[in-house]
Amino acid sequence: MLLIVIVKSLRCLAAVITVGAIMALPLPLSEVAFTIPAALADDDDGGDDDGGGESGGPGGSDGYYRGGGGLNDLRSLFGWPSRERRAPASAAIPVPVRSQNELVAMGLEEGAITGLVQQGFVIEDRTEVSIIGSEMVRLTVPRNMTLDAARAAVVARSATASVDFNHFYQPQTETRGGCTGHGCALVREIVGWPAGEVAGCSKQHRIGLIDTAINIDHMALMNTRLEVIRIGNEEETKSGAQHGTAVAALLVGASDSRVPGLLPGAELIAVDAFRRFGRSTDIASTYDLVRALDLLSQRDVKVVNLSLTGPANALLERSVEAVTGRGMILVAAAGNDGPNAKPVYPAAYGDVIAVTAVDKARNPYRRAVRGDHIDIAAPGVGVWTAASISGARQKTGTSFAAPFVTAAVSMLIAEEPSMSLERLEAKISQLTDDIGEPGKDPVFGWGLLDASGLCKGNGEIKPSAL
């Protein structure tokens, strides 16, 4: 009888713990837009993407829990069958679309800010945005006020200010197995990427990258012209290096490494605007993305790679218009939400070059977003590039297609720095192989990048493209 009471008590305790864990969720369900399994939230889980195995659970490599004590030990005393359960391979991590208690605003007058503070708002941060010529403010809303009501209250204080939620953006990649070791071939041959030291066929390049953290000690990035700048709150958990290292190496990896970059001689200014959310997901806020664009504009960067996506946002859109109006070219990943998904941003903004992905057979990547905003396709399935710690592995996603176009654009504008976006788009449309429906289509845009002519004087634009 005593044994039965103990067993029932243990079960009740487990039920209480489960309920408590559910009640402790950091976000209300209304704030959760989608869930990403921990194993798919980035290139890899556990921070190790160098080909090593991963333990299946907390107690053993076979995925079973091996903790001592508890109900299973009581069962074994009397020869009862074990009810040991396999730990899940990955836990669902709720990823919010936006901060649940913050707004961002540009153009608020000092009197409006004072009134908002009196109303219960808290000024978390404020910074001058040179590309706009205005101050950007990050506000925490009063506890008794919804985000929609808070935004209305801020707008009421200043009719000319730009106000929106502090949305979150994520890298665009997918875990994909297959090729390992030295037998992996580069996929750049399907676009005719010039072999050898391509930087020698053009002037020096300066490329901007807004991404996650980068392992600057990776062998592929040793002796490269790489500068990494981290922005954001130093108290926040640093973002993982899986995504940023892979993209950086794909762009400028040393020519004599296992993962030579597309432009190994280029200068890369990388801004880490991300922070870690949960165990293996990286997110960047609107506030930090705007700061990153402003920083790169101040450094006179002409082309920026954005292998990230998220919702439309008024402040981000205004910043995109500002930097592109100054001559900066933005190249963004189309997104991996699926062919029937809605357009994602910044790729869907009109002044941004949206890049989709294809595989080695030139078929569209199965998860790539489609739409009339898609401009061009590039290799993005099984791309051989750097792992986060050492070595290399395959990467898949529109994140890894975007750098091909970024590199091509960098070579074009290096020859003609004052090139307008319209002229550049016309020129890019001529550097494509129209593999879809004739003309621009929602799957491939103008077609698959054809880089074979990049080191041949870059060619002239056909009259029909002007």
N-to-C SSE string, H for helix and E for strand = HEHEEHEEHEEEHEEEHEEHEEEEEHHEE
* Total number of helices: 9
Percent of sequence in beta strands: 15-25%
Structural class: alpha/beta
The main sheet comes to:
7 strands, antiparallel
Radius of gyration based on Cα positions = 25 Å
**Shape category:** globular
Instruction: Give the strand tally.
Output: 20
Low-confidence stretches: 1-48, 51-79, 81-87, 458-466
Report helical residue fraction: 10-25%
Oligomer kind: single chain
Mean pLDDT: 80
Distance between the termini: 89 Å
What's this model, at a glance?
The chain has helices at residues 2-23, 71-77, 110-118, 147-157, 242-252, 286-298, 314-325, 402-415, 421-430, and strands spanning 32-37, 92-96, 98-106, 122-129, 134-140, 162-171, 206-211, 225-230, 267-272, 275-277, 281-285, 303-306, 308-309, 329-333, 352-358, 376-379, 383-386, 392-395, 432-433, 448-449. The protein is of the alpha/beta class and 466 residues long. Strands 3, 4, 5, 6, 10, 11 and 13 form a seven-stranded antiparallel β-sheet that branches. Strands 8-9-7-12-14-15-16 form a seven-stranded parallel β-sheet, sandwiched between helices.
